[in-house]
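Dear colleagues,

As part of the handover before I leave the project, I'm documenting each prediction I ran so the next person doesn't have to rerun anything. This entry is a single chain, and its sequence is reproduced below.
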Amino acid sequence: MQVNNEGTPSIPTGSIFSNRIVLAIMSSNFLLQLGIWIRNFAILLYVTDITDNDPVYVSLISVVEFTPIFIFSFIGGTFADRWKPKLTMVWCDMLSAVSIGLVLLALLFGSWQAIFLATLVSAILSQFSMPSAMKLLKQHVPGEQLQSVMAMFQSLMAIFMVIGPVIGTLVYQKYGIYISIGVMGAMFLLSGLVLMFLPPDLEKEKTEVQNNFKKELADGFRYVMSKKVLKSMGGIFAVCGLAVGLISPLMIFITIEKLGMPKESLQWLLMANGIGMLVGGGVVMAFSKKISPQKLLAIGIFASMVFTVGVGWSTSFVVTLVLQVLNGIFFPCIHIGINTIILKYSEEAFIGRVNGVLSPLFMGMMVIGMSVAGILKIPLTLSGVYTVSGILFLIGSLLVVPLFKVKEERPNVSISDKQPQH
């Protein structure tokens, strides 16, 4: 990486496929996705086997996966802005690998409950490494290429939504829990080694307020509230999170009640959604330079409204399958639009904290939605809950419309400790 005369990074303008930072982070993400999907399905199948499908322990898997997002997202984002991103990501992967080794030891000595620690620790550390990756992309990827890079990440996620469950199930069924957890640890270790090939972190000037963690945390909230775009994104995150939460636990009932099929058929609906996401990621990547992220986000959320309501009322397996594919095709518009907007309209010095403020809004409302979905299903019926979710998506798409008039800002590449203007 080159540095200009002012000491700020000179961002390369060539193809994203020749950008070593993008390639390294993509390779790392591939390894992490592989490890995480093997972990998710191995632990799910292991816990159901050993507890005889105890719903308390099965639900605990989701609890230990999502709880760190509430507790550590604010903190992780703030520290990501303070720490060196490459070093942070490498340490997080290495510490995850070490923790998985300790979990294996605990399992060997008969403490099967330690299996939850494998998910908990990696989920906590991801709250530090994920914003660090965003920070590196902000430093080293030209603004006009950010949307294409986000599309690449979305496509990778979609690929693993299709093949992840199959790989995780096969590894567990063939090799058992010990090998499955061991493979997960190896993937985190390899990811850390890949990230070591990134160029050295940029040195930033030390300031008198650098060690004031509380001030930086508060500055993150003030920064989001001072930016019209980011403040609007908070409302969009909250509404869409609630919409997703309401329908997430009910897909199994769509399979059983609406379609009259065995619960095992759920995998085909999930696979159809993953295939749609894979196609959608490629389409968005091809047209990413021709459409603004605001329009991309609005289209994605509005499409989710249409297809969610359709799935809730459909009684045909073929129709539901097609709706799942279409929903998957448009989902990358949401993911890519959100990430591009955050990167474009946030100063580099605040990227971690912006993620730390916005992400828990989505996750918090999603968990609230998941908590009340089963209760609402009885009075509203399954179709009614899906309709409510669709209305929430509609509100979310309307909240994006005012952002069409916002002009693109050009935040400084160099890290600034200035407090945002009010």
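Strands lie at 2-3, 9-10. Confidence is low (pLDDT under 50) at residues 1-13, 409-422.

All the best with the project,
I.
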